Amino acid sequence: MGYLRYVLQRTVILIATVAISITLVFFVPRLVPGNPLGAVFLKLAAMGGSAGAPELIEEYNRIFGLDQSLWHQYLSFMRELLRGNLGYSISSFPSHVIDILRPALPWTIGLLTVTTLVSWVLGSVIGAAVGWRGEKSRALQALVPVALVLYTIPYYILAIILIFTLAFRWPIFPLSGAYSVGLRPALTWEFAVDVLRHATLPALSIILVSLGWWFLSMRSLITTLKGEDYILYAEARGLPESRILWRYAFRNALLPQATGLAISLGHIVGGALITEVIFAFPGLGWLIYNSITSLDFPVIQGAVLLIIVSVALANFAIDILYPLVDPRIRYEHARRG
Amino acid sequence: MTAAVPTRPSGFLAALLRNRKFVAGAGIFLLIAVVALVGSLTVDPRLRGAGRFPPRQPPGTAAILGTDTLGRSIAVQMTQAVPNSLQVGLIAALIGTLLGAAIGFISGYFSGIVDALLRILIDVFLSVPSLLFLILIAALVRGVGVRTMALIIGIFAWPSPARQVRAQILSLKERPFVEVARLSGMSGIEIVFRELAPHMLQWLGANFVNAFIAAILAESGLSILGLGPQREMTLGMLIYWALNYGAVLQNLWWWWGTPVVTLILLFLSLYLIHIGLDEVSNPRLQGR
Prior knowledge:
The complex is a heterodimer of chains A (337) and B (288).
Chain A: H1 2-31, H2 36-46, H3 53-63, H4 70-82, H5 97-101, H6 105-133, H7 138-141, H8 143-152, H9 155-169, H10 189-225, H11 229-236, H12 241-279, H13 284-293, H14 297-325, H15 328-336
Chain B: H1 9-18, H2 20-42, H3 74-109, H4 113-127, H5 130-140, H6 146-155, H7 159-173, H8 176-183, H9 188-224, H10 235-244, H11 253-281
Helix pairs in contact in B: 2-3, 2-11, 3-4, 3-6, 3-7, 3-9, 3-10, 4-7, 6-9, 7-9, 8-9, 9-10, 9-11, 10-11
């Protein structure tokens, strides 16, 4: 009963997020000074190709539907979105935006999923262990300031340092890209190893920073839980310490830790997009960067929409799934909602 | 509990100055800000142009922090970059915190449909990566200046303070002193400003620092994407130019290293200030 209501509440948020984002993505470009086509034609004019430009602008306006009323444009924008049509690219005109986004998507999803899962799991486990035994060991306690410094650094700043040290000074890893030039993407052992080598530094810059955050938050959760009655009771009963930590304290701390993941997903994605730029890693962030350089606004818009909807869906999935891990949360949310 | 929460401003300040994290953070932050500001006021503007120094010099007697490929001193560029980046942080954090406080106040004070709608709005904007909206706007408004950029970032910085202020108002509303004020005939507005606002100030301080961090982060991120103020220097733009001219691969480590180290120190100092503020206004956190 409580869970159903909670799912319903999260569904409302999901729909609201998608609807508000689409509306903003549609209206903001039309409210802000600056015209995506104008920028392109300025560039054309600067290159000396301005003959027949007015006719060309008119034709583009017709194709992009810019000669119709705002309301009409909004409705057709929505209708086309539902069909999965994100419009045409400007810089490579006849191509659809969706066809330009498609090859970039797996790289971003792969990088984000692996780094988020690895850092979340590792950070939580190490944080729990240090939070539990921390006070007895100076060496473990020394991890805290290290984690604090790591998590204050943005991914892409750490990325620059990693490129300089591990790709330039000591060339252990490749400088940029997702696989070696000349290698054709295929399901071979050689290609897989090459991709892994290229992905190591981008992944490492995201993992090290987020690891610091999940470590700190789990450590402080476990430190608070240590004083709880049920932990003291378990200790008094003489249960083995590892069982108390992992079966009692850790499981209870996983819930706020999962909520934390849902909340910070947006920040993780934003940072990861810029990290892709530093490594020329061919995901959506690198695509956005290139579209900014080539003034291809529809592609930027399409990528932004795609990422927002994906983050909203991922958030929804985390919110829906974690109450199933621990039934206690159902009642809490039923009461709050 | 009551004894531990200092309500007088002077008591709060004294408690802050006793907090080691706050003092360390504020010390580093002030050092960076003061050095950069004094530099920006004393350095001869003619030294800012290209070719004023020999190019590609490592840090040394010619230029303290070395020079770039165009013969510009990194130190001179820093005297523009740091104040501009701090300005973005300051303006954006002010807009974001005030906007957030207003929305949070309204949402927490009025219950019912207003609160329900605002709560959805806050939840939505908290979960969406605001960087994406910033990319969208900055991609349209080409050639933004430092101020415009701060404004755009500030407009998207309200959700986090709004949520915190709303939660605070909800808990304050239940406290006995608000009930007493209402019974003694104070109006709603009066209760907000005379009774609730003073309690919120300490919380707003921590929120402001958070928004400041987020704004400098957003500035450097947007700049690295190529959407920064192209004609002005910020920490993000300094990194952007260094990367664009291949500073890493040409081993000009001082070029990208100076803004990178400065950004790390800035973030670290701001986080320390934030933790210090949090510990003092919320004593239960102390020693964690």
